[in-house]
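Contributing new records

If you add data, match the layout below exactly. Sequence lines come first and carry their own label; structure lines follow with theirs. Keep one chain per record. Anything else will be rejected by the validation script.
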Amino acid sequence: MSGRRFMVGSVPYLNAVPLTRWLETEQGRTYAEVRYAPPSQLARLLEAREIDVALVSTAEHFRRPETVFIPGLAIASFGEVLSVRLFSRVPIAQIRSVALDTSSLTSSALVQILLRKVYQIEPTYRPMSPDLVSMLAECDSALLIGDKGMLALENLTPPPPLSASREGGVPSSPSPFTERGLGGEVKLAVSGEGSGVRANLENLTPPPPLSASREGGVPSSPSPFTERGLGGEVKPETLTVLDLGAEWTRWTGLPFVWAVWLTNPEAGQEALSELLHRAYQWGEANLDTLIAQSAEQMRIPQSLCERYLRQVMVYRIDARFLQGLERFRQEWSQLSFAELN
């Protein structure tokens, strides 16, 4: 491994933990220093040559095709992603405005692609700070990414009253989190059939491709998840929630690559590739410990950390994921520069 000490840029989200935590160990620090920032900021730091490599949105590679990404590693998913979601106060077909969490160029582009191509709507888009209540006070819907996107509903929902068990008043339901780990009851809203069908959220089989309805190609069963009875300022409302990873796979049948390790062409890809693959090998081998530590440090339910890092996130990508990345590049290229900024 190269004797040079690299400056590594990473997102501060749960999904980056298996990729970067070794770099913060005593051994890892001899090879690298990690700087944490949102992906949009990391992209600027990389372009300014202030960092050697960055875990950034895949769209940054499209924007700067001279960059090189480290092969074989990424943040990806096949089906639902949990941490990139659109929250709407109105049915999806009625959305007229979207508040964008601009931390990620990829997610901002993807929501525009899906709303245009799948739902055939053209709302206006407004960049805002990633706070769900504030965003929904200004717009019909809001895009959130990362840990905030994954925990947004849980943060809005107060824990239910504790009920004492028969043995000494110990709460019989110690956790307010449901099977989705987000608080409250999550149901699948099926077009024409009401909303009483419980979603099987543990089924990791990718959803089938969307079929267009007879009226203008709008999906006949968009399958949004609906959360009712929220606390906070949005309590009177029903939020429809679209998981962008699930929507992409349902539409294309392909996985989605959210972020890659990106370098400038002069940075020395071979040494960086060796370093970052070694870091992930350590993260993969120590995943149980990382899950327990992350749950405590980030105040995320351990069951949700477990599910997210073991079953949802994909870090080693193959040709199928590169197909998904190329499809996204094709769709991205059809968006205008104004729409992406």
